[in-house]
Amino acid sequence: MNQALMLKHVWRILQEDPRSIWVSWVLRYRLRNQTIWTYHSASASWCWNKLVKISLLLKNGLEYRVGDGGKFRLWTDIWHPRGPLICSFPRGPRITGLPSDSLLMAVIHHGQWRWPSESDFDIQEIVASLPPIGPQQTDVISWKSGVRFFWLHMGWDRDVLWAARRWRGQHLINAAHRALLASIVYNLWRERNGRRFSATASSVESVAFRALEDVRIRIISANVRPSLQLRVLYRIWHIPWISHV
To answer: What is the pTM of this model?
Structure first.
């Protein structure tokens, strides 16, 4: 996948944009209570592992500005100069009694830091280098001064152009990818109209399910002779081969 496009995806994940169905799915089913900085899974796909690896290119250019602590995760975000505290202080949740999925607000009280177990040596080191709590109400991720990436202004047109070049040709798998892109666009458009004009809203899971089912139906109904390519396609899309017999 294009590196600039992957970096853009990482940025969207960090912003936790609730308007993005893909980001909502990643946060709920892939990362769950983790962050991209601490995520590790032996069963993750090659593409996802590459996304996690390439996120390191952004790490040094980001500034985590602490507000009320309601967005940043205490143990797994990089709000502290030491990076994710769970990496340098793995016994932290046990020592402090604060679960590994705690938000930063657990150690902020009326705009001031308040850490439990401050007699512990590691806690003292953490407290000694705590960043200031900013005047802004919410936690904010921004670029450090002087850091810029051209891909922040990449638009939908460029994403579609990349997909058109990457998934061209008559190969069945590429054709399925094109069908998926078209299905996503249609279902997002349909969902947008429903929310705007009919005051109806579907869940992230429902929209994703409809998009995937549209493609599965197109694959099953395609007039294609049985082949190894077709078997692979059925396996990728979790379609029983018997449905083609």
So the answer is: 0.58
